[in-house]
Design brief:
7-stranded parallel beta sheet; two-stranded parallel ribbon; alpha/beta; about 40% helix; Rossmann fold; globular
């Protein structure tokens, strides 16, 4: 396969950094759009070109969309932090507005990319689910579900330009150096096992499989619309924390939900919500998971962290 020109937003984040490295290893020509090009150049492989980006408004960066074969859009402000009205607006604009401007730039380009792979999240389904869901299930009715719905709607508009559109609904990401484990390791070393009863379900995914599914979506024209980036084997928050604690050899205790709610406000619902999200499309299309089971995924992540 000849080298492709791939444009990536969010290419210096936890998932984006892993993706960019994987693209470079495959021999792709990668351009990362960054709000801070000086910092961006320090955080990507030397083979990667970094271009300036103003994600929530048009600018010269639009010209980049007319010279690439594919676009991977991962940018968005972190969700697992305390929310207020201003930050909720930032969460929305960093996803919905930036996607709208990317699609508008593609519409203006004389030569268009063949595919837009856009990040989304399992928050699309809502944060407190009783039943198992898959890509055929509808959207939830809380704040993040609304953001994800509008985010995906903007990404799908690129189909009007004849461009294939994929929305990768990412679960709770595990991996070395970022994601959920980055926030869990210190509490685990202090003996914290879970929040509340810990019986809420967690739809997790290893970062290698987020990258793997994005590459799968990039390569396989059968992938269209939403695809859940989750392990086929969801777990509970308590089991996730206990298994991680066993890997690093620490005893565990529980933390009351009220304490987390006081610290994180509305964002706490993301942590103690319950989701059983099945990656139906990935399984149907034959995607091969790198880390489908929890213990090997945690060992791969935490043993790397320990070393």
């Amino acid at each position: 396969m000849p080298k492709r020109r791939i444009l990536v937003t969010g290419g210096t984040g936890f998932i984006g950094g892993a993706l960019v490295r994987a693209l470079v290893e495959r021999g792709e020509q990668v351009t990362v759009l960054s709000r801070d090009t000086k910092r961006g150049k320090k955080e990507v492989p030397r083979e990667v070109r970094v271009a300036a980006w103003t994600p929530q408004k048009p600018g010269p960066w639009r010209d980049e969309l007319g010279v690439v074969d594919a676009v991977i859009h991962l940018a968005g402000s972190p969700v697992a932090t305390r929310w207020n009205d201003a930050y909720k607006k930032e969460i929305e604009e960093s996803r919905v507005s930036s996607t709208r401007h990317l699609v508008e730039a593609i519409a203006l380009a004389k030569t268009k990319p063949s595919v837009l792979v856009s990040a989304s999240a399992t928050g699309f389904y809502g944060s407190d689910l009783r039943d198992e869901v898959d890509e055929d299930s509808g959207a939830g009715d809380d704040f993040l579900a609304g953001v994800c719905s509008r985010w995906e709607a903007e990404a799908r508009k690129v189909e009007e330009q004849g461009v294939r559109s994929v929305q990768v609904r990412i679960g709770v990401v595990l991996g070395h150096g970022g994601g959920a484990l980055d926030k869990m390791v210190l509490p685990l070393r202090m003996g914290v096992s879970s929040v509340g009863k810990g019986d809420n379900h967690v739809s997790w995914v290893h970062v290698d499989d987020v990258v793997g599914m994005i590459l799968f979506a990039l390569d396989d024209e059968r992938v269209r619309g939403p695809i859940n980036a989750t392990s086929p084997y969801f777990t509970t928050l308590g089991e996730l924390a206990r298994t991680a604690a066993s890997v690093i050899g620490r005893p565990t205790i529980r933390v009351p939900f009220a304490a987390v709610k006081a610290a994180m406000g509305g964002a706490a619902d993301v942590i103690v919500g319950s989701q059983r999200v099945f990656p139906k499309r990935a399984v149907e299309l034959g995607y091969e998971f790198h880390h489908a089971r929890l213990l090997p995924a945690l060992e791969a992540s935490l043993m790397a962290e320990a070393s």
